[in-house]
Specification:
Blueprint: E1 3-12, H1 16-24, H2 26-32, E2 39-45, E3 52-58, E4 64-75, E5 79-87, E6 94-105, E7 111-121, H3 129-150
Antiparallel strand pairs: 1-7, 2-3, 3-4, 4-5, 5-6, 6-7
Length: 151
Amino acid sequence: MTEFAVEVTRTIPGPREEVYRAFLDPEILQKWFCPDDFAVISASVDEHVGGRHVVEMLEPDGTRLAFESVIRDLVENERIVLDFAFVGPEPGEREDTSLTVTLTDAPDGGTEVRFDHERITLQPPHFDIPGVNAGWTSVLEKLEAHFEKRS
């Protein structure tokens, strides 16, 4: 099977400390950590290396999906590394990957968020470079909108 990786970067209008918390606070995660047209139905985070980071969501047609991860590294306000898994609706439907979230101060203010998503197995139409790139772009747009609403 062919593996690939994507990198998606976006500037979020908020301080690094608050953007970092947005990845680890279940109440905030529920507001943004899913692609367009999906809805988060629950989120839980056991915030320590080895802890679980889980977001359950619904597709527009009501199908339940989840992001189930194990936290592999936490560098406060700088980096979160997850053994990241997409869990589909069918028994055994699971794609195990790696997601690194890096946070830096943006030159013009705010926080630059970079997703490095690796070890993705090519499975069109959902798991291909354009699809994964579009999914993460829409997730980061929701994060940006969350911080814009607070301004």
